[in-house]
Write a structure and sequence with these properties.
Elements lengths: L1 H22 L6 H25 L10 H10 L1 H36 L1 H15 L3 H12 L3 H24 L4 H9 L4 H35 L9 H10 L3 H29 L9
Helix pairs in contact: 1-2, 3-11, 4-5, 4-7, 4-9, 4-11, 5-7, 6-7, 7-9, 9-11, 10-11
Amino acid sequence: MIWLWGALAFWAAAWFVNARIAASPVRDTKGARIVVPVLFGITLLVLWEGLVRAFAVSPVILPAPSAVAQTFAASTTILWEDFRQTVIKGAMSGFAIGASAAFVTAILIDRSSFLTRGLLPIGNFVAALPIVGIAPIMVNWFGFDWQSKSAVVVVMVFFPILVNTVQGLREAEAMQRDLMRTYGASYLQTLVKLRLPAAMPFIFNGLKIATTLALIGAIVAEYFGSPTRGMGFRISTGVGSLSIDLVWAEIAVAALAGTVFYGIVAWIEKRVTFWHPSQRR
């Protein structure tokens, strides 16, 4: 039980440190915003390790973080190949295609009341379709390689970005649009100089939602057909062969990739929408 008591002691110490930081004047500094979640995450890992070792949990049920770390270090080649297949080829390509198509479609919808009334309701219907129904169809159409996973990602990210972009394009006030017409601005000039800047917070909101959907879609799609590589394929075969430590290593890679992907989009948003009230301090 020494592992359990050690984990609980560490948890108590970390709780005390986090509470002191949260109550101190430095709680809103950049360093504090990094230290608090990092310390909280380390605390969870220590508790996980202590509970697994104290109660002798079978690695088939739940491996210890140290075992997952060892497997991670010993399987970097496999993990990198799976990362390339799932994230770079499947998720990233699908995200780029889906976001570009959604943006162009949003501009067309903005110019056509027919598309506004006809396409958006269909978009809401398609967005509600379960991925387990879409993925087998895409695999049947595009084959077992990354192209089918990219197609699933396109379907998943297209409509969240589309709906947010269309809503954002409507955010410019009527008085502002009237002023642009008074100055003789064309539709393109009004779009570029007024409506798109006003829509940026909504566009980035859709992009941030799509970052998580893209990774989920690519991984789940690999369950329905994949070459002998990819995160979804490795998780599926790892569970079947009881290599649960490798499964958790793949989950860790997916979590890190999703966090970095979301962080990059959020960083770009801060640089683009620095003028928006949500970005001011």
